Amino acid sequence: MKKAERVARVLEAVDTLFPDAECELIHHNAFELLIAVVLSAQTTDKSVNQVTPVLFQKYPTPEALANASLEELEQSLKRIGLYRNKAKNVKCLSQELVERFDGQVPQTREELTSLPGVGRKTANVVLSDAFGVPALAVDTHVERVSKRLKLAKKEDSVLDVERKLCREIPRTRWTRTHHQLIFFGRYFCKATAPSCADCPLFDICTEPLRLKRRPIEV
């Protein structure tokens, strides 16, 4: 199967399975999204959503979060993984937003990744979901799915995966496909116990479980 045909199969499948996929982190503006994505590293969106409503109620602006005590932030984030490092990062990040960007979330990848705790994936999410800039963020789900479905090679870095996906997928649907691949990896093609028996892409997977497949129309 040619690469273009494989990509078309994948896009058709995720469009059918998850037509309304979108960011599941609770947020109301670019600042809240930025903080939520930073907090989501190595933890689930569900866990982050359990702490951010109270966090943003107490600290609704970069100025408020920048002036919060580190001890209070740690207590607010104690339910999520790596909460001490994350408390430090979001405080420092907020301070830099105030000092360098007048309290506004910057709208370029270079400026976003200059902030504490903000990597390329986080920047891509903020660019696409907060500002409508086409970007395709690669998290653990997108990376796993891309490699299983031969959209990327097993040895590819996260940046390699992003570049390959952006090269093969139309720019106009980068953001949508990003969320759809996350949903596919989070709820269908899981790291362990994936739903191979029901998968419409079973025949092009590199790691299928040896299960009797039930056919699905896509």
Automatic annotation (TrEMBL):
Residue ranges occupied by any HhH-GPD domain in the UniProt entry: 39-187
SUPFAM superfamilies given in the database record: DNA-glycosylase
Cited CDD domains: ENDO3c
Domain of life: Bacteria
Family: Belongs to the Nth/MutY family.
Cross-referenced NCBIfam families: nth (TIGR01083)
Biological role: DNA repair enzyme that has both DNA N-glycosylase activity and AP-lyase activity. The DNA N-glycosylase activity releases various damaged pyrimidines from DNA by cleaving the N-glycosidic bond, leaving an AP (apurinic/apyrimidinic) site. The AP-lyase activity cleaves the phosphodiester bond 3' to the AP site by a beta-elimination, leaving a 3'-terminal unsaturated sugar and a product with a terminal 5'-phosphate.
Identification of the protein by name: Endonuclease III
Organism: Candidatus Fimiplasma intestinipullorum
Gene that encodes it: nth
